[in-house]
Amino acid sequence: MTLKLGRRSFADDATLMMAIVNRTPDSFYDKGATWAEDKAFDRVAQVVAEGAEIVDIGGIKAAPGAFIDEDEEKDRVVGFVARVRAAHPDLVISVDTWRAPVARAACEAGADILNDAWGGADPELVDVAAEYDAAIICTHTGGVTPRTRPFRIEYDDVVASAVADTTAYARRAIAAGVDPSSVVIDPAHDFGKNTFHSLELTRRLDELVATGFPVLVSLSNKDFVGETLDLPVGERLIGTLAATAISALAGARIYRVHEVVETRQVVDMVNTIAGRRRPQRAIRGLA
Amino acid sequence: MRVAIVPGVPALRPEYASIEDPVPELRAAVAEATRWLGSGRLVVANGSAKRTEKAPGYFDDRAAAFDEALGAALRAGDLAGLDLSLAGELWADVAGLTALAGVRATEVQVDYDDAPYGVQYWVVRWQCTP
Fold this sequence. Notes:
The complex is a heterodimer of chains A (287) and B (130). With 287 residues, chain A is of the alpha/beta class. Chain A has one domain (3-273): Dihydropteroate synthase-like (TIM Barrel), CATH 3.20.20. Chain A has ten helices and ten strands. In chain A, the strands form two sheets. Chain A has an eight-stranded parallel β-sheet with strand order 8-7-6-5-4-3-10-9. In chain A, strands 1-2 form a two-stranded antiparallel ribbon. In chain A, α9 (237-250) runs parallel beside α10. By secondary structure, chain B is α+β, with helices and mostly antiparallel strands. Chain B has one domain (2-122). Chain B has helices at 24-37, 63-76, and strands spanning 2-6, 41-44, 105-114, 121-128. In chain B, strands 2-1-4-3 form a four-stranded mixed β-sheet, with helices on both faces. In chain B, a hairpin with a 6-residue loop joins β3 (105-114) and β4 (121-128). The chains are: A alpha/beta (287), B alpha+beta (130).
């Protein structure tokens, strides 16, 4: 099925890079590197040059921290979305928010995707997506409150839970009027999950792909990589890329990343090995 | 009778297609020539694969002269008297040319004459009297 992300459509064998652009002073990986709006704007230009099809703009870090109200979140995100839209008319713009009022203002400013990392905490988010013909990312959090860390969460079967919750969310979005070709699911590694849960989701990602909804994975430099290898933020790229390779082999479609170039190479290499993509340019032995 | 001489390049085959075609001009020339050919005779041949150090067969300093002579004969529309005895050593695919023994062209058109990967390719159309 063609994947429709706001103003752009993509073939059903296309893999897409979604580059993270933080409008935050405190996100775990970049620690405020793009808090200044001009720095964030430069980051957008850079990831576009690196081949990212999507930017994911967020105004609130995922982890607990200073309370950011709706108005502050809008201040961080909405004007910036408008600026990016003006400079990059064809770029797919995603907004990382769980709040419907913020999503509405972002769509007015030109956003294409609502990336709801918190699994439908605001039930009206799907209505905003439907109203603006935006795409929606339906994530699995195990039902936790936004911006909380997992604490002793257990699942009978984390993958079954992810399949059930993301597809229920997806059906709710479609029922609300979101275009079925604009609904993406994301098992949300580390959200409401310990490292063992995130590893199992990676290992069994094919079960999410089998739902038929396009699957987004957000693996980049996360704690499950760090804990697996006992490495701090800043030294998790290789582990991230290994998880990326496994996800690509299982058939993930969208990769939410800090490092665009490295991820693109891994995803293309894996998909070509899997026979889903041609080599870029092969002449060895064929001249 | 129409004759088209084209190189047997595996990269032209659909199962070896890349995202970015490594032989776009050659592919276009072969397509044009075979369209023109209709039900005529298709001959598959090419020159030496030892033209450069990066060539599949590495560099052989006899390759250039061999290809020059073969190219001249193809352009002349007459292969009579051509010495192809080095073809095996020089990795030149000339077996198909035996089908042209005694055939002479009255009109010749060269659509392609290049060696982008150290292998000499020609795409040549011969219009022959029956």
